[in-house]
Amino acid sequence: MAILEAVQVTRKAYQVEFPNDWCPGCGDFGILSSIQQALAGLGILPHQVAVFGGIGCSGKTPYYVHAYGVHTLHGRVLPFAAGAKLANPELTVLAVGGDGDGMAIGAGHFVNMGRRNIDLTYILFNNEVYGLTKGQASPTLPLGLQTKSLPEPNIQGRVNSLMLAMTSGFTWIGRGYSYNVKQLVRLIQEAVRHPGLSYLEVLQPCPTYNNLHTKEWYGGKDRPNGQPRWYDVQEEGYDPVIPEGADEETVQAKLAQFVEKAHEWGDRIPTGVLLVNRNISTFEERLAERIPGYPASSPAKRPIADGEGQSVAVLDAFFAELAVE
Amino acid sequence: MAILEAVQVTRKAYQVEFPNDWCPGCGDFGILSSIQQALAGLGILPHQVAVFGGIGCSGKTPYYVHAYGVHTLHGRVLPFAAGAKLANPELTVLAVGGDGDGMAIGAGHFVNMGRRNIDLTYILFNNEVYGLTKGQASPTLPLGLQTKSLPEPNIQGRVNSLMLAMTSGFTWIGRGYSYNVKQLVRLIQEAVRHPGLSYLEVLQPCPTYNNLHTKEWYGGKDRPNGQPRWYDVQEEGYDPVIPEGADEETVQAKLAQFVEKAHEWGDRIPTGVLLVNRNISTFEERLAERIPGYPASSPAKRPIADGEGQSVAVLDAFFAELAVE
Amino acid sequence: MNHSNSELSWRVGGPQGSGVDTAARMFSYACAYGGLYVFGRREYYSNIMGRHSYYDVRVSASRQPTSHRETVDLLVSFEAETLARHVLSTVAGGVVIYNVKDEDTPLERITFLDRRLREDLTAHLQEQGLPPTTAGLLEEARRRGVQAFAFPYDEIIAALADKLGVHKSVAQRTLNTIAVAVSIGMLEYDAQCLVKALQKIFAGREKIVRLNVEAAELAYEYVRTNFDFEHFAFRLAANGLPESPMLLLNGNQASALGKLAAGMTFQTYYPISPATDESVYLEGHHTFPLRQGGTGSVVVVQTEDELSAITMAAGAALTGARSATATSGPGLSLMVEALGWAGINEVPIVITDYQRGSPSTGMPTRTEQGDLLFAVHAGHGEFPRIVLASGDIVEAFYDAAQAFNYAERYQMPVIHLLDKNLASTTMTVPPFDVEAVTVERGEVAVAVPENGHDPFPRFQPTENGISPRTLLGQPGTLHWYTGGEHTVYGRVTEDPAVREQQMEKRMRKLEVASREIPPDEKFKVYGDASVPLTVMSWGSNKGAILEALELLSADGIAARLVQVRLLWPFPAEELTPYLEEANPLVVVECNYSGQFARLLQECTGRAPEYLILKYNGRPMSGQSLYEALKRVHAGGAERRIVLRNPLE
Amino acid sequence: MNHSNSELSWRVGGPQGSGVDTAARMFSYACAYGGLYVFGRREYYSNIMGRHSYYDVRVSASRQPTSHRETVDLLVSFEAETLARHVLSTVAGGVVIYNVKDEDTPLERITFLDRRLREDLTAHLQEQGLPPTTAGLLEEARRRGVQAFAFPYDEIIAALADKLGVHKSVAQRTLNTIAVAVSIGMLEYDAQCLVKALQKIFAGREKIVRLNVEAAELAYEYVRTNFDFEHFAFRLAANGLPESPMLLLNGNQASALGKLAAGMTFQTYYPISPATDESVYLEGHHTFPLRQGGTGSVVVVQTEDELSAITMAAGAALTGARSATATSGPGLSLMVEALGWAGINEVPIVITDYQRGSPSTGMPTRTEQGDLLFAVHAGHGEFPRIVLASGDIVEAFYDAAQAFNYAERYQMPVIHLLDKNLASTTMTVPPFDVEAVTVERGEVAVAVPENGHDPFPRFQPTENGISPRTLLGQPGTLHWYTGGEHTVYGRVTEDPAVREQQMEKRMRKLEVASREIPPDEKFKVYGDASVPLTVMSWGSNKGAILEALELLSADGIAARLVQVRLLWPFPAEELTPYLEEANPLVVVECNYSGQFARLLQECTGRAPEYLILKYNGRPMSGQSLYEALKRVHAGGAERRIVLRNPLE
Ligand SMILES: Cc1ncc(C[n+]2csc(CCOP(=O)(O)OP(=O)(O)O)c2C)c(N)n1
Ligand SMILES: Cc1ncc(C[n+]2csc(CCOP(=O)(O)OP(=O)(O)O)c2C)c(N)n1
Ligand code: SF4
Ligand code: SF4
Ligand SMILES: [Mg+2]
Ligand SMILES: [Mg+2]
C-alpha cells in the first residue's frame, strides 16, 4: 500500500454526486461511508486509489467512491485488482464485491489470490443472498434457511469465508458489521495499512431480500437481553498477530485460536481483527527478488521507447543464445 | 453410492487393453491399480461405475479403468460428475484429477461442491506440478521451492487441499500415498462407501518433474532413521468420525483435531482417514424432500413420453395459475 | 368522439419496487377478463429499488397486438419521474393522470433522471418558453391536446384507511390498484373485471383482496364523479371470454413450460437477468402429475457459475436425462469451452440464451439481438451445433420443446435464442397443447448385457453421422468420452486418419439436420408471399414486423416477412428463391452490425439492400418499423436505418 | 549420383522424452553452422514420455525452405516404432538407419502404434507378401529403392563407455548425438559443424560436450568405415556463414522476443500447449538492458486459470503497462467474457492465440487454423477488436510487436493468431531489428492535476471514436470503468441516446482502423501479381504456398498468393480488385469448414471456386499443395480438396 504523503484529505473528497441506487436501509451504505472515511483518514489522495468492484449491488460501490473506479466482471474482481496493483504498485487498491461474486463464481480466484499475498484489500459484502438478481441464496446462506424470495429452503450448505480466507493464505483477516461504521473505518484502515493481502468480511443486512439476518437480528432485538449478537474480539483482548519469525508452534496456536473464532456464530458473532500473519512475504517482495528495481521500475512506469518512439529494449544477449555464431 | 448386488468381481474386470502412456515410475500407476482393486473389492460391476477425469496426466485415468469413463475439461471434473450422479443416483461416481485441475482452475467448483455433499468420491493426484504441461508449479507446491523445470523458485504459496476440503464441507476426508496401495485400496473403498462427498488426496510422486518430493523423499531415504515420512493416523488410534447428532462441542473438537493433522508436514506426514462427518445430510436426501420419489424416479429414469412419443406431462395446474378463467 | 372497443396503449410508471409490475398485471388481467387481447411490455433498470420502471399494456378487442406502441394513450403516474419521462410520449387526445403532489417538480430534483434526458427536456421546454419542471411538461402536453388530470392519491389513501380502519401504511400499498382503478374508470370499463383480476392476483389472501377492492372502488368513484373525460378519445368494452380460457404469460414462463412438456428432467442455472426467472419458475413448479400416473419432476440446480451450469447439465445428459441450462450473454460467454466438449462428444444439451443489451455487462435488463454470430461461431475449433430463435411467446413454448428433439436426434448442443424482449413480454395466448408435443429421443443404443466387457463403439461412423447414443450405467455399452479427438470407443487418438473420420462424421450430422428438418421449421413466410418487398428477420422482431406489414397493407403496400427460425445450420438453399425474388431485401434486427445480414451473406453471398436496426436496448415497435419500411418503399432511404427513440 | 549441396529432408523419430528434439537441434545447428538454411518441423503427442515424436529438418544450401516435406530422404531411428511409422515415407534413393535390435519387431508388439495404422500397414505388407514386422517394412522399402542400414547403437555405446570409463547409462544419453553423427557421416558433411553445435547446445557443460563429441566421433567413424552409401543420393556441403549470424528459433520464441521489443512489461498465462513455451521463455528472460541505460523487465504471472489471466492482464493495462496474455483455443474460450469487457472499456490488451487441433481438448500438440471465426465473433454482443495472423516466424516477431501498437492506437483488444505449426517450427532467420520496432502508444491523456476533483470524460466521443486514454493513478483524470454501458465518465447508464452514442463511438474506431492501417499491413501479395490463378490464405500456410507457387512456376504455371494478415477489420475493399480478377479463386486453410472462405464471403459476398483444406492436425507441405493446385489448374478438380496423409 502506497501512502505517498500524508495530507489532509476529507471524507468529502471521496464522495460523488452520482445518484446511489441501493435500496433504502441497505447495509451497503454503511460500508460505503466507512470506505470513504477510511481513505480520507489515511490521507491518500483520490487519484492514488483504485476501487475495483465485482458485479452485484455491492459491486456498484466504485461508482460511489470518488477515486478511480473499476466495475469489473462477476467473480473476477480479484484478478483485475491484482493486475493493476502489480503493474503499478504505487496505487492503493481496494477490491469489493458480494458473497456470490466472491464465494461462488469467484471462489477459485479467492483461493489462488491467497497464495500470492499481494498488497491489496478485499472487502466482501456478506448479505447471504444474490441481491442484484433478486434474492437467490448465496454461498454464505446456511443450509435449510428460506429467505423470502426462495421458492424452497436453501438446499446448499454455507461457506465460511473467514475459514476460506485463512486456508487460502490471506495474511490479514477481519470482520466488520455495516452498521458499526466506527469499527469498520478502523478495520478498513488496518487492512489497507497491512502490507499484504487483506480480507475483510462485512456482515451486511439486505433489507429487501434477507428477512432472516436483518439489522434487528444482528442487533439482537429478539434476544432476551436485547444485546447485539456481534461483539468486538479486540474488546475481549483477542490478539490476532502472528509476529514475524514466529515459530511453528506459535503459528499453529494462532491458527487454532482463529479457527475457533471463525466458527462462532448465532448468539455470539465475532468482529474485529481476527488474524494478522506477518510471517509471509508479499508477492511484491518476491518479485523484487527476481526483478531488480521492482517496484520502482514497475510495468506501468518503466520506459519502453525513446523520444522518437523507438524501442529501447536491448535483446542482444537473448539473440546470442539463439544465434548461429 | 449404489452397490446393486455384491457379486464376485475381479480386478481384471477393471483393467483395459488400451496402452498407458504415463512415464515409467509415475505415482499414478499405484493410484490406478488401487482404484481397480477397490472397485472390484466392492463388488460393483463396471457398467455401474462412471469415472470422471480432469485434464492432466492424472486426468487420463478414466481411459485406463474399464468402466464408463469420461475425460472432461480442465478444472470441471466435479460439476460433470455431479450432474451425472444427480441425474442417475444409481451410478457409482468417481472423479479424479490433478492438483492444477482441482486447486487452480477447478478451485471454485471444489469449494462449492463441498456445499452440496453429493454422494461421490473425488481423488486428487497431488504431485505439486503441472505434469502434462511440462512441470510448472501447481498450487500445492510450497513457496520458494524450485523443481527442475522452473526457471525461478516458486513465487506463489501452497494451498493445503485438506484444509480446503474441510472448509468447503466435504464430509469424508482422507489422504493416501500412491505407493501404499494396500492402504489406498482401503481408503478408496471407504470413500466410496461413505454416503456423501468424499475427498481423497493422494501424494503422488512425479519422477519426471518433481525432483524434490520424490518416492525416496516420501520414503524417508534421506532421514537418519531411514523411515518413511508418511504414517497412518489410524495406526496411532486417530478417530476421524463426527457421529450423527453430535453436539457443537464434539464437532469443534473433531475439527480442531483435523486442523492439526492437516497442518502436519515434513518429517511426519499423516495419511489415512482424517475426517468423517455423519452430521450433514446428502444433497440426494435434500432433493428427496423436495421431489417425492427421488432418487427412484430420477432424471435419467422417469418416463417422459408414452409409446407414441407423446409427452406425458400434465401441466394443467400450471396453466390454470396463468389462465384467464 | 368515443372510440369504444378500439385499441389502447396504456402506460404505468414508477420507481422499481413500487409495484409497477403488479399494476400492469392487474390492468392486463382486468382487460383479459373482459375477453380483450393484451400485450404487455416491461422496461426496467438493472436495479432493485428506486430507478424508473414502466410497463406498457396494449389492449385490443379485435386482434392480438404483437408489439408495443411508442406513444401512450393513457399514462398513469404517482411520482414525478414518470411524468418527466413519459408525458412527451402521450398522444394528442390522450390522458395523463398524475399525483397532485407532482404538479410542479423541478426536473433537477428528480434524482434518477439521466442528465442527457434532463438536458433534452429542458431545452425542449425552453423552446416553448416553459420552465424545466413537471408543470412545464404538463403544460406542453396540454398545448398538444393531451388532457392531464391531477389525482389526489393521498386523499384516497387516507379515505381508505379511514373506511377500513387500517393504518395508512397498509392503505398505501394499494397505490397501484388505485392507479389501475383510475384507468379503468377513465375507460368506462367494467369494474368487475378488475375485481376478478384482484382475486386472481391475490388468490388465497382474502384480506388483501378486500383492501384492494375497496381501494379500487374509491378510486373508480372519484374518477367517475370528478373527472371530465368526455374528450378522452378512448373507451374499452368487455367482450365475451373465449371458450378455452386464454393464458396470460411471459416468455420466461413459456420457455419453462415448453421444457416441462418436452420431458426435461434436469436444469441448471446461475442467476442472471433476464434468464433467472425461467429457472426460478421451474424451481417453484418442480413436480406435476404424469398422464399415466405417478409424478413428474425436474431437478433444478443453482450452480456456482455458468462453467458449472453447463458442465453439470452435460454430465446429466450423459445419463439420458433431458438436460438444459438457461442463461444470458455473459453466461453464454463462460459456457463456450464446454459447448465444444458437448459438440465433440455428441452430447444432447439445450442452452437457452436470453439475449440482453451487450457487450459485457452491457444493459442487463434491456433487450438486444446481439448474440447471433456468437452463438453460431462460439468455441475454438469446429463442431456441429444447432441454433434456433423464437419469434414470439407461442413459438418460445414449442421451440423450447423442439430443441430437445433436435438435440437428441442429432446428438449435439442446441442453442435456443430468446431475448429480454420475449422474456418479459406478457401476452394473451391460446392454451398450449401439451399432448401435441412429441418427444423424439433419437437413436439410443439398447443395453446389450451379453456384450459383457467389450467396449462399445459409441462413435461408430455411419452414413448420416449419427451413432446410437448410450447412457451411463447401461450394461454392455461401456465406452469413454473425451474432449480429445477419439476413436470409435471414445479413447483419445491423434491418428490423422481417425481424426478425419470422426471430424467428418460429426460435421455430416449438420448436413443431415439441414436436409431433414422441414422447411417450415426453418423459416416462416408471412404477408403477401409473392411480392418482392421482402423483410427478412429473426427472433422477437416478428410481432413488430407483422404489425408493420398490416399498416403497410392498409396503405396499399404489399410486403412479406421471411422469419428465419433455424439460424444454424443456415437454410441457405431453401431461402434462395426468396432471396432471388426479393427486391428490395430489407433485413430487420435489434443490433448494431446487422448480424443476421452478415450471416446471410456468409451463407448465401446475398447482402440486403436495406438494414433496419435498433440498438438502444429497447425493442422495435410496429409503428416505427412501418415508418421505416414506408421510407424504404418510397425509395431513397439510406441503406442503414437506425430506429431511435430518446424517450424510451 | 552425388547431389552434394542439394536439398535434404531429414527425419529423426523416437519416443517422447528420449531426446528427439535435442537430436534435431543438434542436426539443425550443425547444418546452420555450415551456412545452410534450415527448417525444422516437430510432431509430438500430448504426452510426456513414451509416445512417438518425430522431427523433420529440411536443409538447403541455396534457399530458405519454408515448409516441411512429407517424404524423407534420410531417416534415423533407434527404436522400432519410428521404423513402423516412417519407413513408408522414405523416398527411393533415400536411406533408413535403424537400430540393429529393431530389425524384426512384429508391429503388434509396438505398444503405441495406433490400431488404424497397424492395420493399414499390415494390409499393405500383406499385399506384397511381406510379414507385419519391421523386417517386412524394411524389405518393402528396399524393393522401392531405399537403402536401409542397421546401426549397432549398443556396440557404439559400449565402446564409448569403455573409452571414457563412464557408466553405460551415462554413455546411453548420447544416443541422439550418435544418431545425428551417423547422419552427418552419411551426408559426408563437415563433422566440425556438429562439434560446434554440441558446444552451443551444451554450452557451459564441458564434460557433457566432451562425452558427446567422443560419441559423435565413434559414430561418424563407424559410418565412414562400415556403410556403403555410394548409392545414397544426398550430400551436404558447408557454405560460408552469412555476415550477421542467423538466428535459429521457433515461433514461440519469436513472439516472446517481439513482445519484449515492443515494450511489453506484463504478461499473464495459464499453462497450455502450444502456448506455454512463450511464457516460460519470458520467465527465463525477464530482465535485459535498456538502450538508455537501466534494466528492462517483464513481470510474468502464472495465474490459476485463463479467466484470471486475461482479467489480470486487463487490470495491468489500465495502469498503462503494455500487457498481454498467451493461450490456446481452450484458454481463448474461457477469455471470451473478459474480451468483451476490454472491448467496451476500450482497454488495449494483446491476446496471443496459438491455435491447435480442436474442438475442445482436441489434439493439443497438433496444428489447426480453427479459431478464426471464433476470434472474429467471440463474445456476446458487439464490440470492436482487431484480429491479425502471422504467416511465418519473422512475421510472428514483428506482428507480436505491432499488435501492441494497434491495441493502444485503437484502444481495443487485439487477438494475434499463431498456431502450433508456427510455435514449434524452427527456422534460420536473419537477426531481428529491434530498433526498427516503433512504439506507438496512441492518444494518452496527460495528467491534469489542476482538474482537481472533477471527473474526466474518458469516453468522450470524437470524430474517429478515439478518446485520450488515462492511466490509473494519474492525477486529474479520475473516472470509472464498467462493463455496463456508460456515460463519458464511465458511469453506468441505460439512457437510450447515450447508449447509441457510445456504441457508435466504439464501433467507429474499427472503421478508422480499417482506413488507417496501410494495405501492406493488411495483406501481402506474392508470386505473379497479375495472373488470375489466385490463392488466398492466412496464417502459417504461407510458407507451404510459397513453395507450391515456386513448383508451379517451374512447371510454367503462374499463380499468386494473397496472404491476408489483418483478418478483422476485414480488408474487404482493398481486396476487391484481387477478388474480381481472381479466376479461379482458391482458398487454402488448415481447418474443416473453410473459415477464411466463410469470412471472405461474409465480408465481400465472394465465394472461392476451390477450397484446399487440411484438418488432420498436421501442417500442409508445399509439395502436397503444389499437387492440389496443379489439379485445380488442370480443371475438373472437386470444389473441396482435402489434403490427407495417413502416415503423418
Ligand atoms: C457471468 C455472470 N453471471 C451472472 C451474472 C448476473 N449477476 C449479477 S449480480 C449477481 C449476483 C449478485 O450477488 P452478490 O455477489 O452476492 O452481490 P449482492 O448483489 O448481493 O451485493 C449475478 C449472479 C453476471 N453479471 N455475470
Ligand atoms: C482450459 C485449459 N487450460 C489449460 C489446459 C492445459 N493443461 C492441460 S493439463 C494441465 C495441468 C495439469 O496439471 P495437473 O492438473 O496438476 O495434472 P497432472 O498432469 O499433474 O496430473 C493444463 C494446464 C487445458 N487443457 N485447458
Ligand atoms: S437488494 Fe439488498 S443488497 Fe441490494 S441494494 Fe437492496 S438492500 Fe442492498
Ligand atoms: S509427467 Fe509426472 S505425473 Fe505425468 S506421467 Fe510423467 S511422472 Fe506421471
Ligand atoms: Mg450478496
Ligand atoms: Mg499435478
Description:
The complex is a heterotetramer, with two copies of chain A (325 residues) and two copies of chain C (648 residues). Chain A is α/β, with parallel strands linked by helices. Chain A has a single domain (11-292), classed as Rossmann fold. Chain A has helices spanning 28-42, 77-87, 99-104, 107-114, 161-168, 181-193, 215-218, 248-263, 283-290, 316-322, and strands at residues 49-53, 68-71, 92-98, 121-126, 129-130, 136-137, 172-177, 198-203, 230-232, 241-242, 269-277. In chain A, strands 1, 2, 3, 4, 7, 8, 9, 10 and 11 form a nine-stranded mixed β-sheet that branches. A two-stranded antiparallel sheet of chain A has the order 5-6. In chain A, β10 (241-242), α8 (248-263) and β11 (269-277) form a beta-alpha-beta unit. In chain A, α1 (28-42) packs across α6 (181-193) and α4 crosses α5 (161-168). The longest helix of chain A is centred in the last third of the chain and has 16 residues, at 248-263. Chain A is globular and about 85 Å long. Chain C has 648 residues and is of the alpha/beta class. Chain C has four domains: 3-226, Pyruvate-ferredoxin oxidoreductase, PFOR, domain III (Pyruvate-ferredoxin Oxidoreductase, domain 3, 3-Layer(aba) Sandwich), CATH 3.40.920.10; 248-436, 3-Layer(aba) Sandwich (Rossmann fold); 443-517, no CATH class; 519-642, Rossmann fold, CATH 3.40.50.920. In chain C, the strands form four sheets. Chain C has an eight-stranded mixed β-sheet, sandwiched between helices. A seven-stranded mixed β-sheet of chain C has the order 11-8-12-13-15-14-21, sandwiched between helices. In chain C, strands 18-20-19-22-23-24 form a six-stranded mixed β-sheet, with helices on both faces. The longest helix of chain C is centred in the middle third of the chain and has 21 residues, at 206-226. Chain C is globular and about 85 Å long. Classes of the chains: A alpha/beta (325), C alpha/beta (648). The interface between C and D is large, with 82 and 82 residues. β2 (68-71) of chain B pairs parallel with β17 of chain C, so a sheet runs across the interface. The complex binds thiamine diphosphate (TPP) (2 copies), iron/sulfur cluster (2 copies) and magnesium ion (2 copies). One thiamine diphosphate (TPP) sits between chains B (54-58, 74, 97-101, 125, 127, 129-133, 138) and D (270-272, 306, 330-331, 334, 361).
